[in-house]
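Thread title: Can someone regenerate the structure for this chain?

I was given the following input by a collaborator and told the matching structure tokens would be attached. They weren't. Posting the sequence so someone can regenerate them.
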Amino acid sequence: MKREDKIYESYVQILKEELVPAMGCTEPIALAYAAARAREVLGEVPDKVLVEASGSIIKNVKSVIVPNTNHLKGIPAAAAAGIIGGKAERELEVISEVSEEEIRMMRTFLESTEVKVVHVDNGITFDIIITVYRGNDYAKVRIANYHTNIVLIEKNGEKLLDIPVEGEKEEGLTDRSILNMEDIWDFIQSLDIEDVREVLDQQITYNTAISEEGLKGDYGANIGSVLLSTYGSDIKTRAKAKAAAGSDARMNGCELPVVINSGSGNQGITCSIPVVEYAKELEAGEDKMYRALALSNLVAIHQKTGIGRLSAYCGAVSAGAAAGAGIAYLCSGGYEEVIHTVVNALAIVSGIVCDGAKASCAAKIASSVDAGILGYYMYTNGQQFYGGDGIVTKGVEATIKNVGRLGKEGMRETNEEIIKIMVEE
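Best answer:
Regenerated them for you:
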């Protein structure tokens, strides 16, 4: 692959589009972003708020702590954070600069203002519509299909922006369907590191910092710390523990940003931190580490393209398999080692469900990274799963396609049942 090739340019652009910073769990932050923009359009603090959200948004916002809110949880908290302290121009870092006074004002706002939440089904998985009212005035903002994709801005009946939503197409983004394992492998061999250095440096810096904070602090169930105190600190355990620790912190109110992957901070942590740890352990060098990270990130995005941004299929599984691919490369594995690592990992943990963002995500990350590592060592020991073993079929692309079908179509009813269980609590 040549640097001037269209596919090379597209792969670089995909990394730049996906590897962006976000503070806090990305679904409540997307909701806060919509709320901040709606308040901006209204021009004043509202006296009533209506949040209309798809089931998957409700699921992913319900149980997670919103950063910079003094440990408030849920949809009303995310909306209040955006309305009171949000800076819409910061997008997924919308509430990264909040004062103590604004945090106090959020609580007062929630105590004095009606925030109504309605479950809507407009035929798409990712859907947020926020309407803010003040007297006879209102402003409405809709985000659809991905976290920063504002498709509607309306004030008092006038549509200031109105982009048609055509199913789950991700308008404005580079076509992800061009991703495949052979071209990803070719890309990382021919990659000019300078083309992706900035985004990968930011991913390393941000995600390492929140991982270290997760190990130092007391966050959630402290999965990272439990792993290290129970199993020791060899590289296989460290890779799992440090990834889990980043999620420990992130799901439980840590106010540090992460660089995401496929719209998810947990996935961004999962497909980067284990690779960084292995690169340090193996003294692989900067060049090889960057190539391994590019590989891991693209493999994760490739898998998620078929599954979709939100699903009942746990995204950590895709990211853990991708981390396994990056680790295989760092251990001097070639293309065959990489693709068999991915297939083996998917065969092991593809049954993990997503029941929203919360503390247990860290444990799911640890299991998924473990599957990625085991998937690699299986192949180096002459073992693998074969076509016909459950959802595994002949060829890595066919297996990834099966997983996409499972996550997007097969688990649609599972997702609805999970949402019902969570709403009925």
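The radius of gyration is 21 Å.
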